[in-house]
Design a protein that fits this description.
The chain has one domain: 2-Layer Sandwich (Ribosomal Protein S5, domain 2), CATH 3.30.230.10. It contains 4 helices and 5 strands. It has helices at 33-36, 40-53, 70-88, 93-99; strands at 4-10, 13-21, 26-28, 31-32, 59-66. Strand 1 and strand 2 form a beta hairpin. Helix 2 (40-53) runs parallel beside helix 3 (70-88).
């Protein structure tokens, strides 16, 4: 099987994923998954699409991650893995879509407006 690639984004994070047949190894920016994401919850988030389909030990995944924070990166990686699995076998799509792994979360940080302390915050109103 050739290498299948996909991209996932969340907030400012971008994950580029390269999936090929293997023994279940996940390498992120040349580091192991457990080293890059020490938190068990984030490791779980990353592996969700694989465990949903029961193919966690069938593919080696190489990832390039940049931008954003650790939670955004983990969710971007989850989306990228789900997209790659659909490219490999289109019959996986309904199962992944039902769990919400195929949906790109569009929420981004709103920009700060000029003359204001934050994006929506206003200065304190003074009557006199």
């Amino acid at each position: 099987m050739e290498v299948v690639n996909a991209i996932g984004r969340r907030k400012a994070a971008v994950a580029r994923v390269y999936v090929q047949e293997g023994n279940g190894q996940i390498t992120i920016n040349k580091k192991d998954l457990a080293v890059y994401f020490p938190s068990g919850i984030l490791q779980y988030v990353v592996k969700q699409p694989l465990s949903k389909l029961g193919v966690a030990e069938q593919y080696n995944i190489k990832v390039t991650l940049n931008g954003g924070g650790y939670k955004g990166q983990a969710e971007a990686l989850r989306l990228a893995i789900a997209r790659a699995l659909v490219k490999i076998d289109a019959e996986n799509k309904p199962a992944l879509k039902a769990e919400g792994f195929m949906t790109r979360d569009p929420r981004e940080v709103e920009r700060k407006k000029p003359g204001r302390p934050k994006a929506r915050k206003r200065f304190q109103f003074s009557k006199r």
